[in-house]
Design goal:
The protein has one domain (6-65). The protein is 34% helix and 19% strand. It has 3 helices and 2 strands. The protein has helices at residues 18-24, 32-45, 58-65, and strands at residues 6-14, 49-55. The protein has a two-stranded parallel sheet. The longest helix has 14 residues, at 32-45. It starts with 5 loop residues before the first strand and ends in a 20-residue tail after the last helix.
């Protein structure tokens, strides 16, 4: 019997721009170093399926996922982002 490993990650306001953060009173920003650490963590995770929460900048997140081995993605077979709002 084969098991499916599943992980979840809440990445607080990931990719939120400074201009969008200011009116919300959010002073925290993810840095390029955070992106590298995230790619390393995801590469080591070893989960078959990972569900992410609070991804604000999908394009930035996809750039991080491009660095991950084995490959992870956020788009379906039609190229649509698999997400809810």
């Amino acid at each position: 019997m084969s098991l499916l490993s599943v992980a979840t990650a809440n990445i607080y306001w990931y990719g939120l721009s400074a201009s969008a953060a200011a009116p919300l009173g959010i002073g925290f920003r993810h840095t390029a170093a955070d992106d590298r650490r995230l790619a390393t963590l995801l590469s080591r995770l070893g989960a078959d399926l990972v569900a992410f929460q609070e991804i604000v900048d999908v394009a930035r997140f996809e750039r991080v996922l491009a660095e991950v081995e084995p490959a992870l993605g956020v788009r379906d077979n039609l190229g649509q982002v698999v997400a809810s709002s």
